[in-house]
Amino acid sequence: MKSFVLFLFLFVAGLWVTEGQQSTQGPLGATGLPVTREGGEEQESAPLANDKEVLKESDTEVDQVTGVPLFHNEPVDSGNLTTEGESLFVFRHRKCPWGCFKTVSYKKRRCRWPRKWCSRYVIAYKQIRTPCHNCCKGWFRRRQKCIDINECTADPCGAQGTCTNTPGSYTCACSPGFVFNGTTCIDIDECSADPCGAQGTCTNNIGSYTCACSPGFVFNGITCIDIDECSADPCGAQGTCTNNIGSYTCACSPGFMFNGITCTDIDECSADPCGAQGTCTNNIGSYTCACSPGFVFNGITCIDIDECSADPCGAQGTCTNNIGSYTCACSPGFMFNGITC
Asked: What family does the Swiss-Prot or TrEMBL record give for this protein (predicted)?
């Protein structure tokens, strides 16, 4: 009887030491998780070290669009495969995950018959939610998930912008004259670009600017531009207008002068053109002289008439022209009557 018990003990111990279970790792399944195949025949053996499922955990980050864990298409062999088929899986790294899962692998017993001792198993995988890293800026944690913060509820853009919420952030579509500085809509200082140029002084306003332009220039809403004064015909009918940069000039008709604004009549009489022998009358664009007897207006002034040129004394006298008159020295027997001999 003792020999039989000793034989049975040695037989069981030999099975415990020499026999193991081989498990090979198959290709990836439709879910992206490894598929395993069970190999070898069913064996009786010593119990596992822990009679419960043995779990190995590794953090896996979630795709920002689909929410599916991101990992490479193929597992990477750890280089230390054992009869338990241990493998090392490499997962893609993202700096700020939207949420996290744990990929859990565990040894699951596969024995057809209920026996106390069983070493037959396969490696199965499942995913469980787990607390993840701190959520990125623009996200907050809710039930172990990172949820996007809708920053637009706080109206960060203000009255001068329209807020659009984006994943993890927001943008402001600002009104004209404002720009998004990453936080809100702020006024653009257009004057920093000197839009008015040398002919104007820029004043920045909330959402816009104005130019105080130099004379001869006008603000067109963008900059100071030259005014074409000639378009208003400032010289009138008595002049021809020439536009200059910032001003204009009038080439006036005779009898008119440019006073800086238009062509005005020249008061020639103010210069006493007729002299002592005439009375000046100013006309529009000209003047006339009413000359004293013996004088005539030549278009400029009153000049002495050379009456002798008309030979008023005739054959019986010699004419002498005087200022404003003439005299006749008559032949004997003739006399000068103030007109002739």
From this structure: Belongs to the fibulin family.
Give the Cα separation of 74 and 72 in Å (integer): 6
Measure the CA–CA gap between 105 and 53, rounded to whole angstroms: 10
3-state SS class at 8: helix
Report whether pLDDT(275) > 70: yes
Q: Is 265 helix (H, G, I), strand (E, B) or coil?
A: strand
* Residues 305, 284: Cα–Cα separation, whole Å: 28
The residue whose two tokens read 């022998």 is 277
Give the pLDDT score at 273.
94
How distant, in Å, are the alpha carbons of 9, 283, 302, 309 from that of 290? 163, 13, 8, 22
**Burial grade of 286 (CB within 10 A; 0-12, 13-18, 19 or more):** middle
Angstrom distance (rounded) from CA 257 to CA 238:
9
- Residues 290, 296: Cα–Cα separation, whole Å: 8
C-alpha to C-alpha distance for 9 and 256, rounded to whole angstroms? 142
Closest C-alpha among 189, 299, 239 to residue 289: 299
CA gap 161, 180 in Å, rounded: 8
Highest mean pLDDT among 90-99, 128-137, 239-248: 239-248
The structure tokens 């816009």 sit at 208
Q: How confident is the model at residue 213 (pLDDT cuts 50, 70, 90)?
A: very high
Residue type, 147: I
Pairing of strands 121-129, 161-166: unpaired
Backbone φ, ψ for residue 229 (5° rounding): -65, -30
Spacing of C-alpha 265 from chain mean position: 55
Q: With 80 as the cut, is the pLDDT of residue 200 above it? A: yes
Distance CA 273, CA 286 (A): 11
